Amino acid sequence: MKKNNLLFKNESTFIALGFGSGLANFAPGTFGTLIAIPLFYFSQLLPQYYDYFFVITLFFIGIYVSNQTSLIMKIKDPSCIVIDEIVAFLALLIYLQPHAVELFYSFLLFRFFDILKPFPINILEKKFEGGFGIMIDDIAAAIYSAFIIIFFTQYVF
Questions:
Q1: Residue range(s) defining the domain that contains residue 49
Q2: Overall domain count for the chain
């Protein structure tokens, strides 16, 4: 099945493909990550405890929709599924509450760790199957990014 035909196949594929951002011909994960930024600003309209509920709910939705979409495509972790990038980067932004410069560096670090998948991120990706496996390695990339941003903001700048 062609990726373009997947977008409106059902609600799961529409969400898993990042509302279409995962269909980008070049760097779909980067385009998917960018979707988290307006979601972050939307979440700022909510009380803070709702932010965490919002991102945790999206994580479980992401598990379901990415699993459904990968089964339809018959591919373990297709690059067009970007809900994992969206949710993980959104979680990072909600946790850090960054200003513009921190947001930029958070974006670069997250993409760096998501693409390179250093230890143990690479193990998480291989160990877990289905939607959880698709989602968890991006959460780990967000955690790595958070540690570095926190270190630099606390001890360097």
A1: 3-156
A2: 1
Tokens at 80, concatenated? 């067009």
Give, in order, the Cα–Cα distances in Å from 52 to each of 20, 25, 92, 115.
25, 32, 11, 25
Give the angle subtended at the CA of 65 by the CAs of 63 and 73, to the nearest 5°: 115
Q: What is the C-alpha to C-alpha distance for residues 76 and 104, in angstroms, rounded to an integer?
A: 30
- Residue 156: phi, psi to the nearest 5? -110, -45
Predicted TM-score (pTM) of the model is 0.92
Backbone φ/ψ region at 59: left (φ over 0), alpha (ψ -120 to 50), beta: alpha
Residue-wise pLDDT for 16-56, tens only, equals 999 999 999 999 999 999 999 999 999 989 888 899 899 99
